[in-house]
């Protein structure tokens, strides 16, 4: 009887074959096949492990120096500077409005009347005592003439009284009149002379009033405003007819914070540039506001300026005011960054790691920005690329002496 049997060769391979009747073939058990398979798997694993170990040794044959060099290629290189401390001329920039340093409002001071002539206009230069406008005085002139006639009448009465007294003095010695009559004549003469003085005083008053009818410049200066026209009736209550700037002097009302105001003193120099003008005028701070506005927390520094047609009251101007000398580190603008916490810079410590340092900036100059707080000038400050760094980063430094 024929049957199928699995024959396993000596190399562990098996095949299906037909065994003829009468032939005895030894059969291999399944558990022996499993043991042989496990040995093959173990040998494969060992070979892989040996290969991995050999590969590790091959990769590390270059030594620690080469590995360190490979690691260094990942470290960024940054430019740093040691700013030191520089002496900087302090400057404060402020803006404000131009105005007349001593504004003089001029109005009618007499009894007033109709304006018959206006002799100056805005922008004209006038001298002290110059007539700015002429007011009608026809009625006042007649009143003065009448009073002048009264002076003549009083003077004539005084002369008659004096003559009567002189004659009486001659007669009293002869006994024709009494001393009482002399006293009466003397009193009459004194009263007449007093009436002359009263008449003359009234005449002087009328003439003074007539002189005040005209609008007169109280001092030399520049006419800023003209608020009167020909034919206008003016009086003491008509308000300001002319606005003058005494001697043409101007000033800048520079608004600044109370901190900046505290750094200034009277007499410091200031450079003023009016808006829309390429000219710069040199002046001096002549007054500092003694009061700080409670709402804006600002005060006013008044900068005196000499007359120039380019300085127009009411115009806008910028002032650069000197505020002494400041000794502090100075950095380029690229080294200073800011965020919600304020201004800061990155410095590199002795272990070449990046550290954030909060700073307070001061004066802005053409050479850089001064640092008033946060640095002493001996630190290595990152000049550029600070935005790509983070606290604690490892860097390589390249020292530079340029601050630009």
3D structure, described in words:
This protein is of the alpha+beta class. It has four domains: 3-58, no CATH class; 77-86 and 328-399, Beta Barrel (conserved putative lor/sdh protein from methanococcus maripaludis s2 fold), CATH 2.40.420; 103-234; 247-325, Elongation Factor Tu (Ef-tu), domain 3. It is 28% helix and 35% strand. The strands form six sheets. Strands 3, 19, 20, 21, 24 and 25 form a six-stranded mixed sheet that branches. Strand 22 (360-365) and strand 23 (368-373) form a beta hairpin. Helix 3 (138-172) runs antiparallel to helix 4 (179-213). It is rod-shaped, with a radius of gyration of 55 Å. It starts with a strand and ends in a 5-residue tail after the last strand.
Labels describing this entry:
single chain, alpha+beta, conserved putative lor/sdh protein from methanococcus maripaludis s2 fold, 4 domains, 28% helix, 35% strand, disordered N terminus, BSH_CzcB-like
Kindly summarize this structure in a few lines.
This protein is of the alpha+beta class and 404 residues long. It has helices at 30-59, 64-72, 138-172, 179-213, 258-262; strands at residues 3-8, 14-19, 77-81, 86-100, 103-106, 113-118, 125-126, 131-135, 215-216, 221-226, 233-234, 242-246, 250-257, 269-274, 281-288, 298-305, 316-328, 330-331, 337-339, 342-348, 354-358, 360-365, 368-373, 380-382, 396-399.
Low-confidence stretches: 1-19, 62-71
Distance between the termini: 106 Å
Strand content: 35-45%
The helix content, as a percent range, equals 25-40%
Shape: rod-shaped
Oligomer: single chain
Class by helix and strand content?
alpha+beta
Specify the number of helices: 5
| DSSP, total strands | 25
Give the overall average pLDDT: 81
Largest sheet: 6 strands, mixed
What is the total domain count? Answer: 4
Q: What is the C-alpha radius of gyration, as a whole number of Å?
A: 55 Å
């Amino acid at each position: 009887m024929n049957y199928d049997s699995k024959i396993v060769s000596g190399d562990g391979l098996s095949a299906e074959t037909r065994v003829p009747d009468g032939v005895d073939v030894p059969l291999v058990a399944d558990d022996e096949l499993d043991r042989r398979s496990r040995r093959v798997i173990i040998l494969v694993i060992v070979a892989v492990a040996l290969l991995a170990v050999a590969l590790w040794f091959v990769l590390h044959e270059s030594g620690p120096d080469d590995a360190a060099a490979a690691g260094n290629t990942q470290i960024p290189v940054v430019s740093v500077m040691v700013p030191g401390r520089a002496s900087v001329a302090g400057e404060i920039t402020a803006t404000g409005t131009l105005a007349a340093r001593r504004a003089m409002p001029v109005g009618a001071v007499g009894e007033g009347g109709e304006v018959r002539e206006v002799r100056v206009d805005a922008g004209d230069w006038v001298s002290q005592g110059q007539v700015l406008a002429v007011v009608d005085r026809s009625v006042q002139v007649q009143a003065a003439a009448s009073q002048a006639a009264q002076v003549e009448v009083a003077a004539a009465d005084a002369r008659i009284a004096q003559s009567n007294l002189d004659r009486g003095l001659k007669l009293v010695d002869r006994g024709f009149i009494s001393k009482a009559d002399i006293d009466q004549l003397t009193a009459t003469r004194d009263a007449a002379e007093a009436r002359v003085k009263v008449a003359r005083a009234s005449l002087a008053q009328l003439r003074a009033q007539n002189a005040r009818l005209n609008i007169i410049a109280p001092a030399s200066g520049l006419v800023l405003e003209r608020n009167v026209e020909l034919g206008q009736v003016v009086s003491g209550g008509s308000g300001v007819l002319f606005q003058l700037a005494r001697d043409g002097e101007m000033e800048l009302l520079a608004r600044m914070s109370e901190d900046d105001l505290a750094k200034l003193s009277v007499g410091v120099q200031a450079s003023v540039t009016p808006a829309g003008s390429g000219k710069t005028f040199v002046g001096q701070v002549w007054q500092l506001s003694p009061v700080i506005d409670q709402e804006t927390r600002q005060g006013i520094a008044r900068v005196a300026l000499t007359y120039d047609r380019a300085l127009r009251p009411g115009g806008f101007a910028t002032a650069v005011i000197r505020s002494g000398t400041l000794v502090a580190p100075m950095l380029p603008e690229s080294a200073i960054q800011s965020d919600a916490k304020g201004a800061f810079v990155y410095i590199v410590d002795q272990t070449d790691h990046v550290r954030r340092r909060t700073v307070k900036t001061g004066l802005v100059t053409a050479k850089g920005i001064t640092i008033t707080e946060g640095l002493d000038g001996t630190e290595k400050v990152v000049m550029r690329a600070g935005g790509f760094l983070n606290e604690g980063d490892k860097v390589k430094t390249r020292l530079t002496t340029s601050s630009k």
